[in-house]
Structure formats: C-alpha cells, structure tokens
C-alpha cells in the first residue's frame, strides 16, 4: 500500500465520536484544557461530539470537456484536506506523549493518502475514464479500496483487524475529501440531548447558525479565534463557548460530562466533584449577574457628566430579535444580512428578503435598523451563491483579500439590486439605513450610490411605496485604506460604521478566525487605535455620523477608550448592551478623554491594556 507505514496495530482506542475522529485515545479521569473564551457564561452538560454527517453523494456523470475542471476541484479539496490535517498535527505537542505516539502516525498516514497515493490515482482515473464528478469518483474509489481491504481482513484475524481499520481510514479520508468538495454542511446536531455541550474540530459560521440555543448549553472547538464569525454567532446566540482548544478531541466520548467556561476560556472534561461544584456555583453566579444587568434595561445610556451614548444591537439571526428587545438597545446598528443567504440551495428572492427586513423593521417599532448588504467572502461561505454561479467554485488561497463584500456586489449587480430593492421596500415600514461592507475605494461608493438611485427610480416606476427621502447610504470602515481615506470617503458616504474586527485583521495582517496567531490579534494595538481615530476625525470633517459595530464595541473594558476617542454610538451583540451601558453610566467623558490621551502615547498594546485596567479599577462601575 502506498500509504504505509500504518499505526501500531491495536494501539488506537476508537472513541464514540465515530469513524470521523482522527484523534482517538483513552479517556483520562479529569482533563482541564485551555482555549479562547468566545462567549461568556458557564455550561455543564453531556458532551455531544458532532459527528460529521456522512456526505450524500449521488452518482453524477460529466462531459469529457469537464474532466480538467473536475481535476481542479479535486486538487482544491486535497489541498484543503491537507491543511486541515496539518493543523491537527501541529497541535499534537499539547497531548500526552503516549497519545502523540499513537496519533501522529495516523495523521501521517492520512496525509500520505492525500499525496501521490493509490486512492488519488484511482480517483483521477475514474474521473477521466468513467466520466464522473470528483465527489462520485472519490466515494467510489474509496469504497472499492475499502472493500478489497475488508475482504483481505476476513483471512487475517492474526493481524488484529489491521486491514479492517485500514479500510475504515480510507473511507474516512474519502469522506473528508467529499465534504471539502461539496462544502456540504458538516454538522448534524439532531442527536444532541437537551442541555448538551457541543464539541467539534471546527464549526463554520453556517454550522453555528443552525445551533438551537434552547437545546445546546455550551460549545467548544479545537479551531477558531475570538472575532471570527463563528464566535460572533455563538455570542449572538448567547451560548457559553470556548474555541481554539488544542487536544480537545483526544480520547473524547459522547456522553461524558463537560464544563465549558466561556469567561476564563477553559473546558473540563469528566470533571471531579470539586470542579463540578465550582462550575455549578459559577453557573448560578452568572445567572444572578445577568439578572442584575437586565435591570439596567430601562435606565438611560448616559455618562456621569450627562453625555448621551447610543447603544444599538447587532443582529445576525432573526432568532435574536427577542433578546434585542430585552437588551434595551435603541435600534439595530448592524444587521448582517448573510443569515438570509446561508444554509439554503437558492438565493433569496426580492420578496423573501423584503419580508425578512420588514419583519425586523416593524419589530423595532420606530428605532432605526441599519441593514448591511451582503458581505460574502472570507470565512462566510454561502453555498447558494456557488450553486447560482455567482462566486467562483475554487477555494481562494487568500479569501479575506479576495472577492468580498462590495467587490462581489458590484460584480453581480443583479444580486445587489435585488437586495437594495428589498431593503427600500422594507424602509416604508420604518427608519432604515443601508450599509456597504468592505469598501476600499471611493469609486465603489460612487458606483453603489448610482445603483441605489437607479433601483429606487425603478421601484417608484413600479409603483412601490418608498420613503420620501432615500434611507442614508453609509459604509463600513473596516479596511486600513478606508480609515486612512476617511476624510475623503466622508464626502461620499452618509455615515460610517467602524468594523473593528476586520480593521484589526487587515491592519495587523492577522487572520481574525485563526487560532495559531490569535495572540497577535489585538484591537488595542496602537496601529488600530490610530486608524479608529482617523476615521472619527474624517467623519467629523464632513459632519457625518460615526458608530462602532465590531466586537471591540461589546467589551466594556474598552468603552472608556472608545468614548475618549470621540465615539457616541455603539452597536454590540444584544447580551453586551447592558454591560456597555453600565460602563457608560459609570464614567465621565472628561476622564475618558484623559485616559485616551494617555493611551495614544503608548507604543505597546500591553501598556494600553494596563492603562485600561487601572482606569477600570478606579472608576465606579
Ligand atoms: C467588522 O468587521 O468589525 C464587522 C462588524 O463586520 P463582520 O464582523 O461581519 O465582518
Ligand atoms: Mg467586517
């Protein structure tokens, strides 16, 4: 076999996580693991290890002219699979030595299968000779090799089921390839019991959007960073979560108890009685804290020296609307419209979109709703757009720098116009603003404005009811270029919303969802703070409103700094609104300005953090 050497026969203790698990070893009594705190709260529950649903492949024939394209799709899926496995391998160092010795050869064997192996040779031959799609060829070839091995295993009891295990591993690598080829949703949460803690290698934003917060108590994953969209969705759903936990899957069984502490960023598997009672106390204290904060709902958002600060909510999923109402937010500062496009086969029609937006606008009953047009790209993959041929099929090697946000919309005017028309129709029901994502050039704003006006004219000709004046059209300032050019962009845009998540990522050249470099992702970096300051002064030069809607806005420790920089409008996930309000109500603008003047003289993010800590301790909240 080309992918030998295999692991020590009999050394792998397969877990209940099933055949999809590449990392299986024996269960330890109590394991305390550390990761990135992604959503505050503590959850205790039985582990539900998400088995990746076996991808369904229906046999699909192709034309001879498609052979090359199918080969390219296969190459991209192989590359993606290799990256996933290399990442798992790079984390082995945190595991006990014994586990490393067992798992490393297995991962190496997987990786070998993704090199010049019998499997891949067979797959390519099938595509070319039998004229089948890449996924069909992968499934058929993997099954054929596995069947040969299984037949051999009937005669080799002495080898301890060695060939049978090999057969399963070939199938497993086949499944991984097919999942990466079809980009089918990885997850099936159907088997999770009430109150389960969901544990996975990684979750995509579209997977996270499927989680029912009434059923899933907590989430932990090996992959992921604090400001990636998966983390944002988990916060939106209010599910205690810890991401980027190395070694999480090792020896893990569905059903064992797990404690997820999304405040400090720990996961305890199989907790002993002391840990368990500590966790129960933390759950109760968190609930008390939440209740105390909920009393702030009716209080004004105003500083001690009487300056009003607008606190709005970000909305990712319609399920959050009741939480927004409870939070005391005075509007939606960022409606991420991606949710409408996720987990479906077709692109939503104008009517469908108009209904959804109108529902939000009516629910907000007169408070402004800022609807951001589709921000496809980066980690926000949307299958329906691929199916509709609106975005390239191939995996972009640098998706965050590729066809994202406004760039895609200007390339796909029909997609853009449909969404603008739906938003304009919803604007008849209440105050709306329209927000453009990922702007880097003034020409993009101008082009978008021209399309916006054209869509409005067309709707009026159709007799649609529109507001007398068009809703303001603003831009996300989330690229360094937009921040640096804020003074000129402010002449074209009617408002700014600062997206600190992407701004930080692009300014520091650090992927916001990547665990390997998560310690470098720091919104308190002086470079990021200077870009925010430039944006605010750019907005002031043309007297246009500016708000902040990235995750920085949701961190009450950073509220004084943002107030000191001049921001008076914040948009955060609903559960952060009371905490930020508490910070606003506990400080004065003059103190914040003094803090900010000091902070802007610092050269190191750690000094900035220290200054914020000292300020936090000295202030009343
Ligand atoms: C941001 O980049 O800060 C932002 C709010 O947009 P998103 O997180 O959706 O990219
Ligand atoms: Mg962004």
State the main characteristics.
4 domains; binds magnesium ion; 621 residues; eight-stranded mixed β-sheet; Glucose Oxidase, domain 1; disordered N terminus; eight-stranded parallel β-sheet; alpha/beta; globular; TIM Barrel; binds phosphoenolpyruvate; Enzyme I, Chain A, domain 2
Strand content: 5-15%
Task: Write down the CATH topology of the largest domain.
Answer: TIM Barrel
Helicity, as a percent range: 40-55%
Strand order of the largest sheet: 1-8-7-3-4-5-6-2
CATH superfamily of the largest domain: Phosphoenolpyruvate-binding domains
CATH architecture of the largest domain: Alpha-Beta Barrel
Ligands present: phosphoenolpyruvate, magnesium ion
Low-confidence runs of at least 5 consecutive residues: 1-27
Structural class label: alpha/beta
Provide the domain count. 4
Question: How would a crystallographer describe the biggest sheet?
Answer: 8 strands, mixed
Distance between the termini: 66 Å
Shape: globular
The CATH class name of the largest domain reads Alpha Beta
Mean pLDDT: 87
Number of contiguous helices: 22
Query: Whole-number radius of gyration?
Result: 26 Å
Number of strands: 16
């Amino acid at each position: 076999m080309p992918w030998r050497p295999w692991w020590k026969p009999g050394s792998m203790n397969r877990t209940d996580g099933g055949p999809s698990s590449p990392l299986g070893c024996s269960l330890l009594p109590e394991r305390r693991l550390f990761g990135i705190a992604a959503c505050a709260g503590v959850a205790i529950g039985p582990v539900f290890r998400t088995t990746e649903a076996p991808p369904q492949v229906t046999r699909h024939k192709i034309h001879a002219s498609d052979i090359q394209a199918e080969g390219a799709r296969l190459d991209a899926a192989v590359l993606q699979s290799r990256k996933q496995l290399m990442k798992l391998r790079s984390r082995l160092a945190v595991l006990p030595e014994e586990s490393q010795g067992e798992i490393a050869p297995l991962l190496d064997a997987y990786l070998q299968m993704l090199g010049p192996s019998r499997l891949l040779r067979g797959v390519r031959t099938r595509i070319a000779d039998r004229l089948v799609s890449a996924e069909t060829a992968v499934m058929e070839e993997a099954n054929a090799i596995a069947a040969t091995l299984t037949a051999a295993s009937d005669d080799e009891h002495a080898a301890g089921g060695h060939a049978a295990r090999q057969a399963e591993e070939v199938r497993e690598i086949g499944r991984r390839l097919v999942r990466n080829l079809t980009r089918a949703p990885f997850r099936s949460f159907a088997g999770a019991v009430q109150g389960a803690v969901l544990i996975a290698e990684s979750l995509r934003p579209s997977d996270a959007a499927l989680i029912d917060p009434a059923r899933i108590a907590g989430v932990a994953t090996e992959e992921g960073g604090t400001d990636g969209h998966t983390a944002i969705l988990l916060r939106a759903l209010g599910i205690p979560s810890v991401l980027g936990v190395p070694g999480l899957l090792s020896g893990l069984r569905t059903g064992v108890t797990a404690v997820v502490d999304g405040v400090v960023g720990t996961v305890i598997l199989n907790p002993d009685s002391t840990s368990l009672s500590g966790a129960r106390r933390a759950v109760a204290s968190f609930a008390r804290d939440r209740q105390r904060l909920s009393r702030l709902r009716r209080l004004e958002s105003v500083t001690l020296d009487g300056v009003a600060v607008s606190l709005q909510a970000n909305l990712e999923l319609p399920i959050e609307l009741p939480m927004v109402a409870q939070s005391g937010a005075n509007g939606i500062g960022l409606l991420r419209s991606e949710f409408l496009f996720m987990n479906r086969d077709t692109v939503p029609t104008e009517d469908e979109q108009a209904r959804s937006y109108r529902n939000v606008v009516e629910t907000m009953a007169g408070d402004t709703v800022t609807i951001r047009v589709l921000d496809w790209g980066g980690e926000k993959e949307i299958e329906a757009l691929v199916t509709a041929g609106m975005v390239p099929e191939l995996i972009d090697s640098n998706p965050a720098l590729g066809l994202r946000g406004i760039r895609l919309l200007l390339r796909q005017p029909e997609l853009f116009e449909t969404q603008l028309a739906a938003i304009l129709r919803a604007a008849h029901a209440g105050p709306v603003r329209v927000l453009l994502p990922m702007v880097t050039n003034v020409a993009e704003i101008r082009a978008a404005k021209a399309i916006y006006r054209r869509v409005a004219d067309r709707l009026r000709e159709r007799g649609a009811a529109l507001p007398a004046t068009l809703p303001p059209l603003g831009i996300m300032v989330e690229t360094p270029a937009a921040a640096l050019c804020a003074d000129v962009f402010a002449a074209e845009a009617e408002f700014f919303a600062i997206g600190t998540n992407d701004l930080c990522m692009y300014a520091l050249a650090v992927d916001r969802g990547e665990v390997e470099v998560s310690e470098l992702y720091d919104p308190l970096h002086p470079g990021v703070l200077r870009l925010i300051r430039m944006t605010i002064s750019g907005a002031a030069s043309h007297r246009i409103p500016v708000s902040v809607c990235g995750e920085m806005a949701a961190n009450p420790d950073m509220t004084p700094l943002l107030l000191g920089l001049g921001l008076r409008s914040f948009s955060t996930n609903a559960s952060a609104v009371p905490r930020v309000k508490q910070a606003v109500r506990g400080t004065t603008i003059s103190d914040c300005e003094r803090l900010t003047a000091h902070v802007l003289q610092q050269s190191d993010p750690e000094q900035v953090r220290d200054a914020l800590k000292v300020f936090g301790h000295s202030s009343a909240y």
